Amino acid sequence: MRRVRRRNGSDQVESWSLEALMNLQMPALLPSSRDLRAVVPKVATLILIASAQLLIGGCDGSVSTNSNQDQPVVGLPLPSDLDDYDVGVKAAIEAELVLLQEAAEDPVAWERLGDLYLAHDRPGLAIECYTGSLELDADRVRPVYLRAWAHHDLGDLKNARSDIERALELDPATTHLKWRAAGWMAEEGDLDAAVSMAQSSIIPPEVDLNAVRMLAKIRLEEGRADETVRLLEPVLKIQPGDRGSHYVVGRAKQMLGRGDEAARHLRIAGDARSTFGDPWLNEAMSRRSDLAARLLAVEALSRAKRHDDAALAVDQLRTQYGELREIDYADVVVLVNREDFRAALDLSRRLAESDPGWALPRFREAQCLLVLAGASDPAGVDLVEQAVDAAKAGIASAPAAVEGHELLGRSLGGLGRWNEAAASFSKCIELAPLVARHQVQLGDALVESGDPMAAIRQVDRMDAEFGRSVDAGLVRVRALAAFGRMDEAKALLAQCRRAMPDHPDLPRTARALGGLP
């Protein structure tokens, strides 16, 4: 059994900023970790995250410790500032400590607590836990690897490299150990070793694309821009939305003097940089138990149509955290996913009234108004006009929120103000160039605004960047019909119908050609 003396605060790493922890203004609802561990994509509203602990109720469990500092006790790595933590995180830690107290000779129990600390940016405590696990079973590769990560988080590259080399001894076949080691070797400036290690992680036929991405990144650091492009262009064909790889390719093409191509890649990349998630790190990160992560779990339940469970989860959060606007907004999300748009509209408006500078309730208000307008008979023009006002109010508070501009474009289109709608969709493309939906929306708005030539140019750009699609094809059909080129339009419409006979835009496209839906 591992026996240590309790330490007086020496386990504290850095003071946890509760202000930062509770800064839940969207779109920054994801856990704020260093970019190397960014393992989930952003979206405009609450997003899905795999969470091993969806709900942690108020836990009153306490850890029994001996106040006599001279009396050895089972070592329980305990934050000295635990009372200052997010209450959900505190409950999760206390629960794991209780389990560990009862199973102090179980290496997995130590490892689980280490995962929890690593997920919440407490690498010093994570190291203690993984070390405790390895003292009980020295040949378990996962805690060795995650201890390497914790050392890396502390900037201790020497011990990080020592641990990852040990992990490779224990498990020489797992590819993510190799390409991760390659990345850390490159950080230390050992580029030759890094290249060799990254190459060894590329094992056909089931190639780990992260291994290719890591090798390409290292080649760029070596100045081998041509090799970087050769490696990553096939990756981008498989994963065209990989913004980090677009950034690396863009940098490489700049070095090669291919300025126009580089500019396109860098425009798509925006502020993204290459990130490398792996199964073990992702599993540890899924242990996040703070309010932000648990709100994401509510969204996951609601999207899975487990609406009653989601509503119960919101009630539990309110019991644990008290009245917070973010928890009230989670009620809106559940109502929207239930398709109870009138109730969602009422609650969105109350939230907007209580906090006029908060964009999210305004966007949900606009969304609900558009849905209700579509269900109105006759068409609810007044509701659409209200949606325009709500979307504009949200954009005033969050001008970079893509969903606000999209809702505004849809609302303006519903009023027949297509030139203004086209401007809104152009803004969406500026902010999110890889979302094909916005490209289609712009093309459609250009057709409706009476500029079919601009619409065809837009579809040509879509075909070049995203490949041909039925969505873009139907926009082209409507543009051709506007030109009076009916034979071409009908032939293309027939192709689209064969490719996707249930496409929702087929009826209105047929009507544009003068035919029946």
What would you say this structure looks like, in words?
The protein has 517 residues and is an all-alpha fold. It folds into three domains: 1-172 and 287-338, Tetratricopeptide repeat domain (Serine Threonine Protein Phosphatase 5, Tetratricopeptide repeat), CATH 1.25.40; 176-276, Tetratricopeptide repeat domain (Serine Threonine Protein Phosphatase 5, Tetratricopeptide repeat); 339-512, Serine Threonine Protein Phosphatase 5, Tetratricopeptide repeat. The protein is 65% helix and 1% strand. It has a two-stranded antiparallel sheet. Helix 5 runs antiparallel to helix 6 (157-170) and helix 16 (325-338) runs parallel beside helix 18. 42% of the residues are buried.
Question: Keywords, please?
Answer:
517 residues, mainly alpha, Serine Threonine Protein Phosphatase 5, Tetratricopeptide repeat, two-stranded antiparallel ribbon, 26 helices, 2 strands, 1% strand, disordered N terminus
Strand order of the largest sheet: 1-2
The string of secondary-structure elements, in order, is: EHEHHHHHHHHHHHHHHHHHHHHHHHHH
User: Which class of the largest domain in CATH terms?
Assistant: Mainly Alpha
Major sheet description: 2 strands, antiparallel
Rough outline: flat
Task: Provide the helix percentage.
Answer: 55-70%
What proportion of the residues form beta strands (DSSP E)?
A: under 5%
CATH H-tier superfamily of the largest domain: Tetratricopeptide repeat domain
**CATH fold name of the largest domain:** Serine Threonine Protein Phosphatase 5, Tetratricopeptide repeat
Radius of gyration: 27 Å
* Structural class by SSE content: mainly alpha
Described by its quaternary structure, the protein is single chain
Identify the CATH architecture of the largest domain: Alpha Horseshoe
